[in-house]
Amino acid sequence: MSIILIVLSYLLGSIPTGVVLSKRLAGVDIRNYGSGNIGATNISRLMGKKFGSIVLAIDILKGFLPVLVGKLIFPPQSLFTPWILALVGLAAFLGHVFPFSLSFKGGKGVATAAGALLAISPISILMALCIFLAVTYKTKYVSAGSLAGALSLPAVIGLVTVTRPYILTTWIIAAIIVVKHRENIIRLARGEESPVNLKTTAE
Fold first, then answer.
1. What range does the domain containing 142 cover?
2. 141-179, pLDDT tens digit by residue?
3. Domain count along the chain
């Protein structure tokens, strides 16, 4: 059952929300515009904040729902349950970042990771969200806020829970998010990154 849920979680994560929405509603492929990313920030730039918010919400749910189902199915007292939930959340994140439907070239995974961790540890993701908002507000760069929030995940989840699977998973997620933001990091270093309003959503 756990393997089935992990596979289904990856498949759900692989649904390219931004690509589907941009093609259906605007008749364009979001990958050919702006940063080329399929996340909510690029959708907001092309189609407006309303559609960016829709993509953000769906991408969060792609991570949240599979983990929630896992929490309902597997007994909380089992030693294996944290490992299963961690793998389910990681699978949804990897589905978004490496979707089979887009030849494994997906988004940066911030929203989907946040959704998965929201189901696992709401307090931890709230702390990371505060860091994201503070850095984004200070720098005016969503990419900087996303990086700060992602890098804070192992620390904040370690403060809330000492559960090894969750800590290990957040390290993996943080590392992948940093790698996926490598072009943003270069632009930030060069002062070429496009500033975004605080209300614009994360990729």
1. 2-190
2. 988 999 999 999 999 998 888 789 999 999 999 999 999
3. 1
